[in-house]
Amino acid sequence: MFKYLNPSYIFTITGKILNVLKFIVTPIIIIGVIFSVFVSPIDYIQGDAVRIMYIHVPSAWISLICFAAISFLAILNFLFKIKSATLFYKSLAPIGLTFCFIAIFTGALWGQPTWGTWWAWDARLTSMLILSFFYIIFICGYKLTSNSERSAKICSFISVLGLINLIIIKYSVSWWPTLHQPSSISLFRESTVHLSMLIPLIIMLFALLLYSALIFLMKYRIETIRVKKKSLKD
Amino acid sequence: MIIDILNLNGHGVFVWPSFIFPLLVCYILFLRTKKTLSKLEKENIKEIKILSQQKFEHIKKQKISLLNSKT
Lengths: 234, 71
Fold this sequence. Notes:
heterodimer
């Protein structure tokens, strides 16, 4: 299994996958936007404002998935000293931060027509804002620390705290009375979103996941080259 | 018709920025990452060329010294 975590092995494969991804990401994003803005129906309460959901929800999901993956990798690196895990989390963190900001921004834009306010200090919104701070601290944690062991310690510590925040984000709508609606889509029960709205949502999620994969692979190559250069200098 | 699409029943002012801003941010992130990657890849190729040249010269020197020692 560890053969597949070997940076040189992954470096060769990433080059091939990158070439394919570069060509398919843009058309899928365009299809997703067309479905979201023109094809999907209007919500009977929210009207056209519901279209913001197609960008807000996938962004929020990706930012949460990224942090969960980062935390897992940072803890793995701290416990078992798997150096390639650092390459993975360094490549994932900027993507997660970007999508976290997008989720907060689009959430504010969605909040104004539906709740009548851009921002409220409610549990879900605040915990998402805290997640963005965790991302920033995490990125600073490895960028500003030259010592790899200390960096691993800092990153794993932030990850553990961030994981607690992830649980808070997930259950914030159930634990506290919030403006934010409870989740409509779950892996374990039937979705309350109609299929005509679910399809554009899945297309946008798929498009943004492909985009994330593209950036991740590019960042991974950058980090691998940096490590190679550093080892050549040493 | 175009005005209707832009207006989106009064929600256009919220809907359009929510698509334009994230896609713009994603595009900028892509361009920046691509620029850094191509710069690093070029530097990496240069370094590998220099290193392989040095290695070649080193092997050449070793062969010459071996030949000298035999004679």
